[in-house]
Amino acid sequence: MQHGSAVDFVRQVRTYMRVFGLVMLPLVVLTYGEVRAQSSGERVLREIEAAFARGAEQEIMRRAADRIEIALFGANMLYSEAQAQLVLRTFFRDFPPRRFVFEEVSRNGPDWFAAGSYWHADGTEPFRIYVRLQERAGTWALRSIRINQRVRR
Question: How far is CA 69 from the centre of its chain?
Fold first, then answer.
């Protein structure tokens, strides 16, 4: 191998590595951001799950958007954070938690959805609870909570 061709080869390899780095770096950064956002959304859902299990409305509302939709047994309204906290406090007072677990979790674009069963102290049939998180500019906000009686089949 001639000396000139070895030098040319090294230069070519360096050029390819620079180009490869310029192409791959944004992909790695974007992928990292997506993974970070995904795990963050899952983490927020786990925090909400734990707060429902304890009947801790303040912890749930800490993740809420400025306005949050709450549907209780079919009655659907948009609430401010303070109003929503009062609604949840009343719900937990009337139906103290015995156990809560999310059984289904999925993501669709900027939204995370979760559905779970809420067993309360006075009931044999759990309620079905649905929540929706939405991500904007890297921040996850609780947008809606739906609480329904489980339909017997």
Answer: 16
Chain centroid to Cα 83, Å, comes to: 22
pLDDT, tens only, 106-119: 999 889 999 999 99
pTM for the full predicted model: 0.72
Domain containing residue 74: CATH number: 3.10.450.50
- By residue range, what is the domain housing residue 36? 3-149
**Where do runs of H (alpha helix) occur along the chain?**
3-54, 57-61, 81-94
* Spatial contact of 82 and 67, defined as CB atoms under 8 Å apart: no
Name the 3-class secondary structure at 70: strand
How many whole angstroms separate alpha carbon 82 and alpha carbon 85?
Answer: 5
pLDDT digits (tens, 9 = 90+) for 30-76: 434 433 444 588 999 999 999 999 999 999 999 999 999 999 999 99
- The CA–CA distances, whole Å, from 89 to 60, 104, 126 equal 11, 25, 18
Q: In what order do the strands lie in the sheet with 127-136?
A: 75-80, 64-72, 139-149, 127-136, 111-120, 97-108
Domains of the chain: total: 1
